[in-house]
Specification:
about 110 residues, mainly alpha, 6 helices, elongated, DUF312_ALF
């Protein structure tokens, strides 16, 4: 396979791959959570257009959800957590979607009394 087609992502070629790599590095550095860093490193180490695209399209979201789940469990481990915050955390875990976990961490936990 010629190098130009090997790195083609929707017609972007090597430049597109370099942009994906920079984006992944930025996300991993900005985030700092274990699953995101682990999955970002795997995509960067694999270094194929498919691996980079897969991380950006779904891998980041799923890795962030794994890290968010850990963060919610840490909140639940606090012995001083209010009943309202505990209920909201448990609801986010029960829902289980990446969006519910992220919403609880960014907004929901601050909307409850206590």
């Amino acid at each position: 396979m010629p190098p130009s087609s090997r790195y083609r992502l929707g017609g972007g070629g090597r430049l597109h791959v370099q942009r994906h790599r920079r984006t992944i590095l930025f996300l991993a550095r900005q985030n700092g959570d274990k699953a995101v860093i682990r999955e970002a490193n795997e995509a960067l180490d694999t270094n194929t257009p498919e691996a980079l695209r897969a991380f950006l399209e779904t891998g980041y979201r799923l890795a962030q959800a794994e890290d968010d789940r850990v963060a919610v469990f840490r909140i639940l481990a606090d012995p001083d957590i209010s009943d309202a915050r505990r209920a909201a955390a448990e609801a986010a875990l029960e829902d289980g979607t990446p969006e519910a976990l992220r919403h609880f961490l960014e907004v929901g936990q601050y909307e409850v009394d206590g």
